[in-house]
């Protein structure tokens, strides 16, 4: 079996371990503190994962070592990166050394364009989990491109958090109540503006655009946040306390959409002319309009799928489905 290293040992990394054990020889797992290197029995690897889930750092375990985990990698090892680090340069070094990568980490793919091309140029890096968790979005985009189809537009709702928010507003809840509920459910970052700002959606759109060959950077994408600019510098507590000021504006925009037989969605749109991320009124009977709750949806309009776009829809987040996409990529790299 092929050797596998997992960098990033949070929920997704531990789920990758559990799903990958029947298919790979686990060489090491690493977090910011250090790493644990094999060989270990499957039972012991699962015990390491359980200890990490309880808050133990890997370096503090009996088998743990501090230091740079990359120095312990076997030659030709597969590497799963489930962190959220801006580590593109380090990953490029691994590719240059002959390692193959499966990423759940979006940030390296949104770094400098030259680093992106160095990562993916020889197809030694796969990244299905970065856009739609377990949904086959990147592989579908690659299939359309590689088969010679002409992708004219990609549109999608790529945030479960913002899908929940707008479905709540559609049902008549005030913006402020919907944001607080999403935060209480753990569906937002500790600072909800990290979701409401749209940057995470923009990163996903940039990954798809670069997959199609567009030589864009994140700064080339127009992003409409779901809060006004003057709210950006508030503390989290101040931001949460002033949410009611935004209720009337979003209620009015929803009412205007309803009057036209439409509803509001937070949409990423990619065409050869550019990309835009923001609030959009869409027809109720369209694929985007029919979307409810935290599900994600992507629609490709192409030369071959002109009258009826190709649509993928389903859960766009979740530990197990994200790990399954990483496993899919690892198996494809073998």
From TrEMBL:
Taxonomic path: Bacteria, Bacillati, Chloroflexota, Chloroflexia, Herpetosiphonales
Listed Gene3D superfamilies: Dihydrodipicolinate Reductase, domain 2 (3.30.360.10), NAD(P)-binding Rossmann-like Domain (3.40.50.720)
GO molecular function annotation: homoserine dehydrogenase activity
Homoserine dehydrogenase catalytic domain location: 136-331
Protein name as it appears in the record: homoserine dehydrogenase
Alphabetic keyword roster: Amino-acid biosynthesis, Methionine biosynthesis, NADP, Oxidoreductase, Threonine biosynthesis
Cofactor annotation: a metal cation
Active-site residues, as the UniProt record annotates them: 204
Record field: catalytic activity: L-homoserine + NAD(+) = L-aspartate 4-semialdehyde + NADH + H(+); L-homoserine + NADP(+) = L-aspartate 4-semialdehyde + NADPH + H(+)
Keyword Amino-acid biosynthesis: yes
Family label: Belongs to the homoserine dehydrogenase family.
């Amino acid at each position: 079996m092929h050797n596998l290293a997992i960098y990033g040992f949070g929920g997704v990394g531990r789920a990758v371990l559990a799903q990958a054990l029947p298919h790979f020889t686990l060489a090491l797992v690493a977090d910011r503190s250090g790493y644990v290197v094999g060989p270990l029995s499957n039972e012991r690897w699962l015990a390491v994962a359980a200890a990490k889930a309880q808050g133990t750092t890997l370096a503090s375990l009996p088998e743990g070592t501090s230091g740079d985990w990359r120095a312990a990698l076997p030659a030709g090892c597969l590497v799963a990166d489930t962190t959220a680090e801006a580590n593109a340069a380090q990953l490029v070094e691994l590719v240059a050394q002959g390692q193959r990568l499966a990423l759940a980490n979006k940030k390296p793919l949104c770094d400098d364009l030259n680093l992106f091309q160095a990562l993916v140029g020889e197809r030694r890096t796969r990244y299905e989990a970065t856009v739609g968790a377990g949904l086959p979005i990147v592989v579908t985009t690659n299939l359309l491109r590689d088969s010679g189809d002409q992708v004219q537009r990609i549109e999608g709702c790529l945030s479960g958090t913002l899908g929940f928010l707008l479905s709540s507003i559609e049902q008549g809840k005030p913006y402020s109540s919907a944001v607080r509920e999403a935060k209480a459910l753990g569906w937002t970052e500790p600072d909800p503006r990290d979701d409401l700002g749209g940057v995470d959606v923009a990163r996903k759109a940039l990954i798809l655009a670069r997959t199609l060959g567009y030589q864009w950077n994140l700064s080339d994408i127009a992003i409409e946040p779901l809060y006004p600019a003057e709210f950006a510098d508030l503390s989290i507590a101040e931001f949460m306390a002033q949410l009611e000021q935004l209720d009337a504006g979003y209620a009015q925009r929803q009412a205007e959409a309803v009057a036209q037989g439409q509803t509001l969605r937070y949409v990423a749109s990619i065409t050869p002319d550019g990309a835009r991320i923001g609030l959009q009124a869409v027809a109720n009977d369209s694929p985007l309009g029919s979307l409810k709750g935290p599900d994600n949806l992507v629609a490709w309009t192409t030369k071959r799928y002109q009258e009826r776009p190709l649509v993928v829809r389903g859960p766009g987040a979740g530990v197990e489905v994200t790990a399954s996409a990483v496993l899919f990529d690892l198996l494809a790299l073998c």
